[in-house]
Design goal:
The chain is mainly beta. It is built from three helices and 19 strands. The termini are far apart.
Length: 295
């Protein structure tokens, strides 16, 4: 009994002074074994096998069970998540998925500089026999540095299975800020804006770029230093209401044109109603500044 008490006290003393390792919610594992060294820093001589995939795409453990496993080796672990997932990395091409995610972000933020990206599956199944067909990232996810998205597997014509993934991006991007107070209705230009490099975290809306200067106006007053996003501006109309525009029409191979009055403001590509000199109304498509065609 005395020996058992001494052993218990020794274990308690070792535990009190031991480091607590905080586990992540999921891990990608190369190879068919899940080892302690995949999760924590541990000497090779003290490393041990937790589980094997044995053909499975992944394994999940309650944190309570992992605590017991590590405790038998004198190691203390904990986690914020109740379940810890281990995924067999060889069942999915993570590098390709990361590249696809980066392409999605660069479509929205052409001037973004991505320092690092981490992608992890949130569910597991064996999809090693399937190709990646496409990825779906919502517009809201593209405004944040952390989020989730869907990867479809199969081929471009047949999507047979989907998996959910998380992503985390460390990046900076160039944005336009108000260089001074911008009143509502003011035209945005180089005179009242400035470009700056900003750490990418979360945007309420996608920032505008310099190509829109002189083409948009402020919807509401903007304070100095405020990031200018798409929801804070509106495009200047290519055609104003009651403006005289030139309408073109092709009849029997001959192009004819005449003047008409726009019945509303419009952008290029929009269809609006116009009225000619006789008072007749008809629909046209705006093709340029002060220009429209009858389709």
């Amino acid at each position: 009994m005395k020996k058992l008490l001494i052993l218990f006290l020794a274990l308690c003393a070792a535990t009190i002074g031991a480091q607590t390792y905080i586990l992540e919610e999921s891990y990608l594992i190369s190879g068919d074994e899940i080892r302690a060294s995949h999760i924590i820093q541990i000497d090779a001589k003290n490393d041990f096998v937790i589980d094997r995939f044995d053909g499975r795409g992944g394994v999940q453990y309650p944190i309570a069970k992992l605590k017991r496993i590590f405790a038998t080796h004198g190691v203390i672990v904990d986690a914020g998540a109740p379940i810890i997932s281990f995924y067999f990395a060889d069942t999915v091409d993570i590098d390709l998925i990361e590249k696809m995610v980066i392409e999605k972000f660069l479509e929205v933020y052409p001037k973004m500089q991505i320092n690092h990206i981490a992608v992890r599956p949130l569910s597991f199944t064996d999809i090693s026999h399937l190709e990646i067909a496409q990825i779906d990232i919502s517009q809201n996810a593209l405004k944040r540095s952390k989020g989730t998205f869907v990867v479809w597997f199969g081929d471009e014509n047949t999507r047979v299975k989907r998996l959910f993934f998380s992503y985390e991006i460390d990046a900076v991007t160039r944005v336009l800020r108000a260089s001074r107070l911008i009143p509502s209705g003011a035209l945005l230009s180089q005179e009242n804006t400035e470009e700056t490099l900003l750490a990418f975290d979360q945007f309420s809306s996608v920032p505008i770029d310099q190509t829109l200067l002189e083409k948009v106006m402020a919807k509401a007053r903007m304070q100095k230093g405020e990031v200018i996003t798409q929801t804070k501006v509106k495009l200047l109309p290519d055609v104003e209401k009651n403006q005289k525009i030139r309408v073109e029409v092709v009849s029997n191979g001959v192009k004819l044109s005449f003047w008409a009055i726009a019945q509303k403001t419009a952008q290029i590509g929009e269809r609006i109603e116009v009225k000619d000199d006789s008072g007749k109304k008809f629909w046209v498509r705006i093709t340029g500044k002060d220009l429209a065609v009858i389709d």
